[in-house]
Amino acid sequence: MSKHQADFSARLTAVRSALKSAGVDALWVSQPENVNYLSGFSSPEDAKALILPDAAWLYTDGRYTLQAAQESAIPVFIARSPETLQHAAPLLSGLKVGFEMQHLTVAELGALQAHWPTEPAPLSGVVERLRLIKSDAEVQLIEQAQAIADAAFAELLPMVKVGAREQDLALALESAMRRLGADGPAFETIVASGVRGALPHGRASDKVLAEGELVTIDFGARLGGYFSDSTRTLALGEVSESQRRMYTAVLEAEETALAAIKPGVRTADLDALAREVLGRYDLADAFVHSLGHGVGLNVHEGPGLRSTSEEVLQAGMVITIEPGVYIEHLGGVRIEDLVLVTDEGSRVLSHSPKERF
């Protein structure tokens, strides 16, 4: 058995154990990243997987016959629905099968019920919980993606100047990531300058950067199905005391949260730490999103670093720490790093320089 096959065999063993604990025998997998995780197939948006007690199948259509044969670690059945469901039906005789309730439409559930000899049971988060802890190979891909993003950002820095257009900066950064080896950007690059910085997800526009502004750049690379994610806020010349205070507060909040990362820490407590720092600057109300999220096959996945989360950090998780403040008519600041939780504490994977006022 190759290492590639062994990795996926271990994942199938783990998901079968989780299914047994959930009281089901099989799982119909429809969430694309979960299909990828269990099969290795890199076009999972056009595929499903069936995990059985002693077998597994990848279902996709004829466009992917060769690709699936080359990539999939599990047997492949080429067809479209309802043929796929008809193929699965006899395999499910006498079994209790679960489906991913957050990733299946009502129409798709109706099709399962119409073709299968058993009533499917709704399940939530079975595969996602397995994906929380990254293997060494997964961490390596994420770290490589982040290294590409950091190198591309270093190339971009001389271009971030008065007179540059947000859209041109985003295009240059994404082009550099591809040239340096990325499969593509992790998401649409955010470039938000001046008052547009008050938009947490401000798409790059035709706005021209001006003297005395802050510009927030949120960027990441995709490599081998895995993602990176980081953010920097830069100053264009001399900025106001209000802008400087915003930046200082966010940087202190981020550094405080980073220092507290270790196994056993509640993600909600990290979020609270950052908010406490921002509160000392009377900026807690301007922090309108969670402190961070997991990164892997999705750029946003578990664990969630928010006030309502019950999740606890474990070694092998890859997370972001990204406090931000956003004030209409003034602008915004966000600083984000990508972090691996280790047995000893943590290791920051992102290395682009930060402003220091």
UniProtKB/TrEMBL annotation:
Keywords: Aminopeptidase, Hydrolase, Metal-binding, Protease
InterPro entries reported in the protein's UniProt record: Creatin/AminoP/Spt16_N, Creatinase/aminopeptidase-like, Creatinase_N, Pept_M24, Pept_M24_MAP, Peptidase_M24B, Peptidase_M24B_aminopep-P_CS
A molecular function (GO) term: metal ion binding
Peptidase M24 domain mapped to chain residues: 141-343
Gene3D superfamilies to which the protein is assigned, alphabetical: Creatinase/methionine aminopeptidase superfamily, Creatinase/prolidase N-terminal domain
PROSITE patterns listed in its UniProt record: PROLINE_PEPTIDASE (PS00491)
Pfam families documented for this protein: Creatinase_N, Peptidase_M24
UniProt domain Creatinase N-terminal: residue ranges: 11-133
Protein name: Aminopeptidase P family protein
